[in-house]
């Protein structure tokens, strides 16, 4: 548990110096909002393919640590290459390779962590909360540093921290793997035929797509509203710091009210945040409602991973986690970031948050309608 906690702390520390600021990084280099949306959508498009493929490979080879280590190293090195690329064409070509490996580490790591947590009798949320803690520390610190020194070196910091993550991966526990004689197409067919899982993925996509858009376009919202950009890091830090206790609360709420009702609540909380940001243009209120973002994410992230694990059979655990991530964050990100860039260019970032509210309202309703698909907690732990 301590090793997994260290991994999540360092992994999300690396995410904190990079992901909240990629839109500003490319914007500051002179790309339009539409071009920024195109680049981020391409990352999501690549992840839609990369994550299931890497999950399938993991389930067949049974060596998640090796895949995580290789992906972490290549993502860090390729990311550094953005500093050397000039022009949109070069950025797009490099993005194809960077996004492939960068997007694969998290879902494979989650599959490994949930398996170890189920085996050793502790909740996934108890280790995932350390990622929320480091994300809060990282975003708060980098928000101040980047505003003072600029955003040109974010991939350098990502490279340095990723190398430390690689050392931690070497010490992660291993799990026993059951290999089955089934083709890759047969393995993917099992996933597609898993109807409760597919319904869950489609519903989750509406909610997580809104979270992905908010992650990438919140800095541009600050820019359009004329807010001091040094507060961007604080906004992400406020959301992340509340996640730490809320992951602990989520593990208990999921047992008390069930996972699907908890996800319904998460979508409603997300929607409330976005509605406030659409209705009001106040930096203090914008910072305050980031608490809602942190609560919603904590309720959704750990719960969704455990729901996916409960639907998995032997030999499809990493596959389901990566398919879930590919569709919700990947496919959702493709549509969301592309549309988000166009909406921001033509209607403004403020109007974008009205759209996010509508997405979350629909997700909240669908979680309630489909709650009969909710697996029991005991079933999930046994999975």
UniProtKB/TrEMBL annotation:
Domain (Major facilitator superfamily (MFS) profile) ranges: 1-373
Keyword Cell membrane annotated: yes
Superkingdom per UniProt: Bacteria
InterPro entries per record: HcaT-like, MFS_assoc_dom, MFS_dom, MFS_trans_sf
Gene Ontology terms: cellular component: plasma membrane
Molecular function terms, GO-annotated: lactose binding; lactose:proton symporter activity
Keyword Transmembrane: yes
Record's bilayer topology term: Multi-pass membrane protein
Subcellular location: Cell inner membrane
Residue ranges crossing the lipid bilayer per the database entry: 7-26, 32-55, 129-149, 155-175, 196-218, 230-250, 262-281, 287-308, 320-339, 351-369
Keywords, sorted A to Z: Cell inner membrane, Cell membrane, Membrane, Transmembrane, Transmembrane helix, Transport
PANTHER family, A to Z: 3-PHENYLPROPIONIC ACID TRANSPORTER-RELATED, BLL5896 PROTEIN
UniProt-recorded name of the protein: MFS transporter
Provenance organism: Paenibacillus agri
Classification of source organism: Bacteria, Bacillati, Bacillota, Bacilli, Bacillales
